[in-house]
Specification:
GO terms for molecular function: ATP binding; ATP hydrolysis activity. Helices cover 36% and strands 23% of the residues. It is α/β, with parallel strands linked by helices and 265 residues long. It is globular and about 50 Å long. The protein binds adenosine-5'-triphosphate (ATP). The site of adenosine-5'-triphosphate has 12 residues, from strand 2 and helix 2.
C-alpha cells in the first residue's frame, strides 16, 4: 500500500480531532459558534474562510491553548490537555520563530533537549533531526544560522522541528503566507511529501484558494460573524499532486466553488 492509501486507511481509526457543539467566547464575543466536526486521522485538511471567521481560534481550541466555552473537544480520543502532554500535536506558525543563535540542526533538536532536561519521556520521530532536515530539503544547510537562511528555508526548519517529537497531528497556521508564490509552490510540494512519508494528520489554515485545493483532501470552509462551519468540500484530485494540476478543469471547478462559498460568507 502506498503512503497516501495508508493515510486514507488511517481514516478508519479514532478521529484525529473531534469537536462536539464546540463554542469559543472571548468575553461577550462569540468567536466560534457550535461547531461539530470529526477530523479523520491521517487526512490533510485545508481551512479557508474570511478574515476573523475563527480559523486560528479553531487551531488554538484543538491544541489546548484556549478552552471551549461549551461543548467538547478531543484529540485522538483524549482531552486536549492529555494530548498536549503526550505531544500528540505540534504547531507551525507563519513566523518560523527559530532561536537566532542556534543552527538549523540545533533548532530542530531543541524540543528533544527541552524534554530531556525536564526528564519528560517524550515521543521521538523514527527519523533523526538530520533526516528530518533532509526530508524538508535542507541537507547541507544544517549548520546554517537562521539569518543565513531564506524565509522559505526557515519555515522548512520549523516544519522539521515540529516533526521531531513524532506528532500525529500537525496544526499549521498560514505557514507559507509570507512567502513569494514560487517558494510557496515549492514548499507545498515539500509538505505533501512530508505528509505522505510520515502519515501525520494536517490541519492547514490558508487565505489562498489555490493552495487549499492543491494541498487538501478536504477543505473546511468557515463563515464569519460568528465563526461557524459553512461547508466541507472533498477535493477528489489524485496524489501525488503536481503544479500542472492547477491548470486542469477539475482544479478550476473546485476553486470556483470555494470562491463562490467565500463570497457568500
Ligand atoms: N484573545 C482574543 N481576545 C478577543 N478576541 C479575540 C481573541 N482572539 C481572537 N479574537 C477574535 O476572534 C475572532 C476570530 O479570530 P481568528 O484569529 O481566529 O480569526 P481568523 O479567521 O484566523 O482571522 P485571519 O484570517 O484574519 O487571520 C476575531 O474577531 C478576533 O478578533
Amino acid at each position: 500500500m502506498d503512503a497516501v492509501s495508508l493515510n486514507a486507511a488511517a481514516g478508519t481509526q479514532v478521529p484525529a480531532a473531534s469537536l462536539r457543539n464546540a463554542w469559543v467566547k472571548f468575553g461577550q464575543f462569540t468567536a466560534i459558534q457550535d461547531i461539530s466536526l470529526e477530523i479523520e486521522a491521517g487526512a490533510f485538511y485545508s481551512i479557508l474562510g474570511p478574515s476573523g471567521c475563527g480559523k486560528s481560534t479553531l487551531l488554538r481550541l484543538v491544541s489546548d491553548l484556549i478552552p471551549p466555552a461549551a461543548g467538547e473537544v478531543s484529540v485522538f480520543g483524549k482531552t486536549t490537555e492529555a494530548a498536549r502532554l503526550a505531544r500528540e500535536f505540534a504547531f507551525v506558525f507563519q513566523d518560523a520563530t527559530l532561536l537566532p543563535w542556534r543552527s538549523a540542526l540545533k533548532n530542530v533538536e531543541l524540543p528533544l533537549e527541552i524534554g530531556r532536561s525536564r526528564g519528560i519521556d517524550i515521543p521521538v520521530s523514527d527519523k533523526s533531526p538530520m533526516e528530518l532536515l533532509e526530508l524538508v530539503g535542507l541537507k547541507g544547510r544544517e549548520h546554517a544560522l537562521p539569518h543565513e537562511l531564506s524565509g522559505g528555508m526557515r519555515q522548512r526548519v520549523a516544519i522539521a522541528r515540529a516533526l521531531v517529537c513524532k506528532p500525529k497531528l500537525l496544526l499549521m497556521d498560514e505557514p507559507f503566507g509570507a512567502l513569494d508564490e514560487m517558494t510557496r509552490d515549492h514548499l507545498n510540494l515539500q509538505l505533501l511529501k512530508v505528509w505522505e512519508e510520515t502519515g501525520v494528520t494536517i490541519l492547514f489554515v490558508t487565505h489562498s484558494i489555490p493552495e487549499a485545493v492543491f494541498l487538501g483532501q478536504k477543505v473546511l470552509m468557515l463563515k464569519a460573524h460568528p465563526g461557524r462551519l459553512h461547508e466541507i468540500v472533498d477535493i477528489d484530485l489524485p496524489y501525488p499532486r503536481s503544479i500542472a494540476q492547477r491548470d486542469t478543469p477539475e482544479f478550476t471547478r473546485y476553486s470556483a466553488h470555494l470562491r463562490g462559498l467565500l463570497e457568500a460568507c
